[in-house]
Amino acid sequence: MTDPTPIAAQPRQESTEPDTDARRRFDPDHVLTTLHATMTRPESAVELLTRTWRAVPADADQAWLRRLCDLGTELATTLPTSLLLATAFRHAAQTLRTHGLLHLAAIQGMRELAIHRLHDDNPDATATALHDLAQTYRAQHRLHKVIDCADETLETYLLHHHDTGTARTLHHLGGLMIDAGRHDSAVKYLTRADTKYRHVFTTTERAHGLAALGQALWLSGKHAPAHRAFNQALALTIGIDDLTAQQFRALAARPDDLARSPLQRFP
Known about the structure:
Elements: H1 5-8, H2 19-25, H3 28-38, H4 42-55, H5 62-78, H6 83-98, H7 102-119, H8 123-139, H9 143-159, H10 163-179, H11 183-200, H12 203-219, H13 223-237, H14 242-253
């Protein structure tokens, strides 16, 4: 049988070339036929599926994409803990998002997350899977599901006593609470984030967290504490990051602008 790998391993950007060239190098029917033939060797099939998702052209047929998803589902029953299969699911979700198949993208993201939950030994990997799944939920305008992903990320980092991840996730949750209009909750998360940041010595991130805390406090009507948070953020960035210091100086001077120009998230 002809080795299918070169067909499926072409970089995705090649899909921007003329259609005839892209289709000559990436034959969807041949790729599917080869994948089906490889399913008796699951490890090889997972490798090929991963390469295929990374090479999907921009004009791929939706029915064909759904058939690729079905193959991933079948492989998950055979290799439920395969980290390479988790990678395939990640690429699948990202590709499906670009094609507007958000429901399918969410399913692929949940499958990736399930694999990392089974491993339960790498909180950063689990957090990354949750972040990518949240990207799909955000595209679906499901902010409550985005918040759920952040909540699970926080729980994961807390269980692993991962202070840096905990601080960053508390910061992220505070930003999400601001987006949701839950300003008092934002203050609580961002106050906890600041406490963690002090212990993990991430000065720049702490400064952005303090600026976000100032935003949440201001929007909650607590103007004096908001000014203190803005000034603390400014003090941490002077002489270290002049552009950021300028942003924080402007916030301290004109906090009412927050209503018209939301604070940029960090990182």
